[in-house]
Amino acid sequence: MKKVPRDLLDFIKNGNKFIIAGHREPDGDCIGSQLALDSVLRRAGKKTILLSAGSFDRTEIKKYKKFFKSKIDEKLKKGARLIITDCTKLERTGDLAPLLEGLPSALIDHHKSENTSHNKGVLKKHYPAYIDTKASSTTLLILYLIKALGMEMTKEEAEYILFGLCTDTGFFRHLSSENSEAFEAAAMLVKAGANPKKVHAAMYGGKSLGSRLLLAHVLQNIEPHFNGALIIATEEYEETQTHGKEGRDSDMLYQLLQSISGVKAIAVIRQEKPDNCTIGLRSLDKIDVDIIARKLGGGGHKNAAGGSIPGTISEVKKKVLKNFRLYM
After folding, report:
1. Alpha helices in 15-106 (DSSP H)
2. Nearest in space to 217 (alpha carbons), one of 236, 232, 198
3. Three-state SS for 49?
4. Region of residue 197 (phi > 0: left; psi between -120 and 50: alpha; otherwise: beta)
5. How would residue 244 be classed by pLDDT, with cut points 50, 70 and 90?
6. 202, 227, 251 - which closes a domain
């Protein structure tokens, strides 16, 4: 695990007011890292503002919406420093990006670093960045930041960190023998009061009947390609309108598709708007879906990535197949 950069520690110690922003369409790791960092900074005597463009449709993060602002005015921004968690591009904060331009900024993330030239000059050349692509979650980096600040972790912070760690590891399903640090961290979090059973219930419980009906519909429309090595699943715009984003259970969908014999990779394409789709890519081992996602305008990790692409399902599917063909 990389050490927390000295310039990030100085960035925090020398600031009095911080805006903590994450990416749009947040997941448990994004929300958990923001909430844990917010708690740490407040205990250190700092003023904080939590920002998120949302949405908070996911069952497991709904209850946290009340802690976040979706907008910020010039008065609140005055004298503030910005810390972005769980992404490396300001644009990924969605509608918040134009509101955050020009602020002194820092990054904490476990995704591959993006070229900051695409950030419209917002993030300066020597901004502090704590980026470790080998970390299992961004919340894990918050844990090491707490230690580097010389502070003890609270039970509440441990719960947020474990939530993010379990989210990005599929409750440890995606880890290998190279990820011993994640299990060591999990033990520390449990000792600090975090409850794995409670986290599991939050992540996998409380699903609606509609979520199961939507899952059934998507499964009925799966398509095998390249002799079954790639499975493509689609969710039409009409289905999204009928069941809503709340009806989605992406983790369960990926689990079911990955269990099919011979599958090496998965692509889930969703028609979010009549002229725009989102894609979720997963691979079991050797195929680097981050490379494919980047070619399509997204990004992520070797075995889990995604993005947003203009077009209809049929148009996006052609692009996905074209890029996977090189690996199949």
Report:
1. 28-43, 74-77, 97-100
2. 236
3. strand
4. alpha
5. low
6. 202
Would you place residue 247 in the very low, low, confident or very high pLDDT band (cuts 50, 70, 90)? Answer: low
The reply to whether 241 and 311 lie within a common domain is yes
Number of structural domains (the chain) is: 2
Q: Output the domain CATH number for residue 65.
A: 3.90.1640.10
> pLDDT tens-digit profile of 125-156?
468 999 999 999 999 999 999 999 999 999 99
Map 149-208 to HEC letters. CCCCCCHHHHHHHHHHHHHHCCCCCCCCCCCHHHHHHHHHHHHCCCCHHHHHHHHHCCCC
pLDDT tens for each residue of 167-178: 999 899 888 888
E strand residue ranges, 52-133: 81-85, 105-109, 129-131
Confidence of residue 211 (pLDDT cuts 50, 70, 90): confident
Cβ neighbours, 10 Å, residue 3: 9
53, part of any domain:
yes
By the 10 Å C-beta count (0-12 exposed, 13-18 middle, 19+ buried), 283 is classed as buried
Phi, psi dihedrals of residue 152, rounded to the nearest 5°: -95, 140
